[in-house]
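ingest -> validate -> predict -> emit
validate: passed (alphabet ok, no gaps, 410 aa)
predict: started
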Amino acid sequence: MKYPTLKERFFRYIQIDTQSDDSSATFPSTQKQFDLGKVLLFELQELGLTDVVHNQWGYVFATLESNQTKLVPTIALIGHLDTSPDVSGAGVKPLLHPEYRGQDLMLSAAGKVVLSPKDNPVLLEKIGKTIVTSSGDTLLGADDKAGIAAIMDALTQFVTHPDLPHPRIRVVFTPDEETGRGVEHLTVEEIDAKYGYTIDGEKLGEIEDETFCADSVEMIIRGVNVHPGMAKNKLINAVKIAAHVVEKLPKDSLSPETTEKRQGYVHPHQFTGTVEEAKIKFLIRDFEESGLKEKESFLKTILEETVSKYPPAQFEFKVTESYRNMKVVLDKYPDVLDKAEKAVAMAGLKPHRAIIRGGTDGARLSFMGLPTPNIFTGGHNFHSKLEWIALEDIEKASEVLVNLMKLWAE
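emit:
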């Protein structure tokens, strides 16, 4: 039987809109994530995998049984179905730029969206490769459809070459990773593996074993609404109070746009309100849990001091835990990372351990009892209309997965 190529799978997946919605209370946050799940359900069945399930929460599961006579650990390969809420994923039109020569890439016909090596120097490492971008109107969706394509391609290789050694493999595709809720209705017992790998990273050869610690903060400010014609000395405008809170944030530090490497931040990413009630939502990030607490205390102090100047205004300050730095867990399981590094080297690449200025489903899963580092896909500029990837790098990710499963079968 002739199965789709990696390129055909990738292009099929990215043209299915699966954008999640971080303001939704449902799970998954958007029903359209089921659309890609249904496609993958069919493809996994077509490959002959067993225990293929697409459940009520949108998770897709499947099993490729081991071809070893000896007992070896079951390994989970994990990708996520959704794309970022930040940029539209509807109507993705992938553009191929074959045999890249280091030039600027015009993504939009009007030339308003330009991918340039001046701003993206890693492009110069891809000379001669096939670059894939969107048309500049949407994100591309390589995050994480490149990871899904790599997993599906590796599975195809095992199915079409039954002599390739591999352990029992559990395939797990999750919804709503981008909203931080990807494992909300998932258990380690359902995954049924000893170790896992998310295929959701960036640069070629990278293995990510450390994430931010992450919380979210919601400030609710309640003012006093009075008819503006009779408001003197009575009206307390919650929108203005909230604006003053934001204005007090540092201008040259503690924000995503002013930090890098191991520096944490506070990030106001949503602001809504009326005179009577205003809300500000923050993302809080730090590689140490103590750093989270310091930043949350800092925000609460700003809020208290500001609201106190506008009696009788009131406020609420809510902290919700998102995930923690998975390195705390992964350091206890060195073999999981060592094998990943060997698999990368077997593909002719230089393995490199990296930190994630973000998180993955693997961060939550590691603390739930499934040690799960993150493996590269080759993608860049995630959550952006300038998102891009080299097809050859996705192929390398697939090759690394085949190598990795060989190593676990030893």
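The chain has a mean pLDDT of 96.
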